[in-house]
């Protein structure tokens, strides 16, 4: 029953987020935190797995939606034969409790409305106990540790394990619905005034957006991406999740369905650059501090991802009662890839510390101590095979990008030591950096194809090698870099978008291949900017922007054949890449200086 992925909008309170469909149905919400069980899970199943619908009783002839300026307040306007009504959805900044506010406003005429609420805690599996207070002012929904409280002046009733209401809205009228979360063993969360909450939410986002420094050509797109990143940030710790969803498929109907409600180290430097270049140094510092806490401990135990509070055990299991988005199974909770060895994360970590110092963020002494310990460990493991940036679940290989990022680790360690006067075994680090560079150029470059490849000894390509010039491994003018870009465009483009995996490795029996990876398309644009090919970069950027939904939101991937967004949604890495490419294009057009996304070297 789920809508297309791009038909959803996002609301949130910087501790969790909900997806709202064009039809007025909230089909996904993990409560009270991003990594909690979902209480609305119709996105991955059916209405009986939990949703909250408010819509015209007889259907709408047309619906339009928009965010209120630079906010996360979503308004959907329904046109009917009898009039028009606006549904205003938002989550106020987190107070003592988490609240969802839904305001129904009459725009024209009189419209009969229908409310249907099906709460199913435990990812759509647990049927709660529902009771009403004696004064009928609130409806309590309780199951195990979880409690939700619905407050509205509209009379509700129970039917077939569903809370429903029928009401009529006239022009100029506003009818509120407020759903609040609280632990079931505590008193009910206090009631909030919905109109006051609306103003406070508007003020919060307007004030936050006023800090943005970006005033370039793509301001509307960049601001929506920044707001989305803020919404995906767990405010108490500063951790940024990859997406608020799990198991939205990379292939429609397929089994490549993963839980993205965690924080990935691989996104660290691009996240930091997007925040700092846009004026958000507080968020950049919070992200840096989250990283420092998350990776504390023995470097050998460092993971590729952590929970929003820095949790390390992200055990993976399957919710077999959920049929999956459009039948894509299994539905996975947790992510087993957290235990993989991925060498690139060491480079990301050292690079993010170096970029922080170059941006004059104040780092504690423990940061450099940690970096030295990490680099000692990288010296021992850089030549081992790993699972790569794309978390391959087969046998480990010597992935080129992983090796390059170990080079980045030593390169940035050297640069930090030299620039800031830190004590370090710089001569040893230089020798290791040079050895890794030679190793990659000798074993990771295919002379016959004139391109770097996915892994040593392979003839297949991988979109991550587009980042070699951005991280400074080779200059953009190097013939091997130009050859790599040409090979990517020759073998890994699908209808103008870049795939992350070489389609030549997928046999006919394994078709269809996954959708095009949107961040990789923007990485190709960045590579063209660095090479001075501004028009090619602009074309790629415009192509990605064009497939954003009407609210400016983007998933992880795009299926050009189906003309649909696929993968978890909205995806932080896609929006981070969009921000950085927009900065790059602006810089390139204003001057011929080094673009913002190229990391300090």
Folded structure, characterized:
- With 601 residues, the protein is of the alpha+beta class.
- 31% of the residues lie in helices and 22% in strands.
- Strand 27 and strand 28 (564-566) form a beta hairpin.
- The protein starts with 7 loop residues before the first strand and ends in an 11-residue tail after the last helix.
- The mean pLDDT is 94.
Mean pLDDT: 94
> Helices and strands: which structural class?
alpha+beta
- Note the main sheet: 15 strands, antiparallel
The number of distinct helices, counting runs of at least 4 residues, comes to: 13
Work out the strand percent. 15-25%
- Outline: globular
The parts where pLDDT drops under 50 for at least 5 residues are none
Number of strands: 28
Radius of gyration: 25 Å
The end-to-end distance, rounded to whole angstroms, is 50 Å
What percentage of residues falls in helices of 4 or more residues? 25-40%
């Amino acid at each position: 029953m789920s809508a297309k992925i791009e038909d959803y909008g996002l609301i949130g309170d910087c501790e969790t987020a909900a997806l709202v469909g064009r039809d007025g149905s909230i089909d996904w919400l993990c409560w009270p935190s991003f990594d909690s069980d979902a209480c609305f899970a119709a996105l991955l199943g059916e209405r009986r797995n939990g949703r909250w619908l408010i819509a015209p009783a007889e259907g709408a002839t047309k619906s339009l939606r928009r965010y209120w300026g630079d906010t996360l307040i979503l308004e959907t306007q329904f046109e009917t034969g009898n009039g028009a009504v606006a549904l205003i959805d938002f989550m106020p900044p987190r107070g003592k409790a988490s609240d969802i506010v839904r305001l129904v406003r009459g725009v024209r005429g009189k419209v009969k409305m229908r409310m249907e609420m099906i709460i199913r805690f435990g990812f759509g599996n647990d049927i709660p106990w529902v009771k009403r207070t004696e004064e009928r002012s609130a409806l309590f929904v309780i199951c195990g540790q979880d409690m939700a409280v619905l407050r509205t002046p509209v009379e509700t009733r129970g039917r077939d394990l569903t809370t429903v209401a029928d009401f009529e809205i006239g022009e100029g009228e506003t009818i509120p619905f407020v759903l609040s979360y609280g632990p079931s063993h505590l008193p009910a969360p206090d009631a909030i005034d919905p109109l006051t909450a609306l103003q406070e939410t508007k003020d919060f986002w307007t004030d936050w957006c006023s800090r943005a420094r970006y005033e370039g050509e793509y301001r509307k797109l960049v601001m929506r991406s920044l707001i989305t990143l803020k919404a995906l940030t767990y405010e108490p710790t500063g951790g940024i999740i990859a997406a608020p969803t799990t198991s939205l498929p990379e292939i429609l109907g397929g089994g490549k369905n993963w839980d993205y409600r965690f924080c990935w180290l691989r996104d660290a430097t691009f996240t930091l650059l997007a925040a700092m270049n846009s004026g958000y140094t507080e968020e950049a510092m919070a992200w840096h501090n989250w990283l420092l806490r998350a990776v504390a401990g023995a470097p050998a135990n460092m993971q590729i991802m952590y929970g929003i509070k820095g949790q390390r055990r992200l055990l993976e299991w399957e919710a077999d009662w959920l049929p999956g988005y459009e039948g894509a199974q299994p539905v996975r909770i947790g992510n087993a890839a957290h235990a993989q060895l991925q060498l690139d994360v060491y480079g990301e970590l050292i690079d993010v510390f170096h970029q922080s110092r170059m941006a004059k963020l104040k780092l504690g002494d423990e940061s450099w101590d940690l970096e030295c310990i990490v680099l000692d460990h990288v010296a021992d493991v850089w030549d081992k095979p790993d699972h790569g940036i794309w978390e391959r679940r087969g046998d480990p290989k010597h992935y080129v990008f992983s090796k390059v990022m170990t080079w980045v680790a030593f390169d940035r360690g050297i640069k930090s030591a030299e620039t800031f006067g830190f004590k370090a075994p710089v001569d040893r680090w230089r020798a290791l950096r040079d050895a890794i560079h030679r190793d990659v150029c000798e074993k990771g470059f295919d002379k016959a194809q004139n391109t770097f490849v996915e892994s040593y000894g392979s003839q297949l390509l991988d979109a991550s090698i587009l980042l070699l010039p951005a991280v400074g491994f080779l200059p953009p003018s190097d013939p091997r870099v130009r050859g790599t870009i040409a090979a990517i465009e020759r073998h890994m483009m699908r209808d103008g978008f870049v795939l992350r995996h070489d389609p030549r490795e997928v046999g006919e029996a394994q078709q269809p291949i996954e959708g095009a990876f949107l961040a990789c398309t923007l990485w190709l644009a960045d590579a063209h900017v660095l090479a001075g090919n501004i028009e090619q970069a602009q074309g790629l950027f415009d192509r990605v922007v064009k497939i954003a939904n009407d609210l400016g939101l983007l998933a992880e991937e795009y299926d050009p054949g189906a003309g649909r967004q696929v993968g978890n949604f909205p995806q932080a890495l896609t929006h981070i890449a969009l921000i950085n490419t927009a900065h790059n294009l602006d810089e390139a057009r204003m001057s011929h200086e080094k673009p913002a996304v190229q990391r300090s070297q």
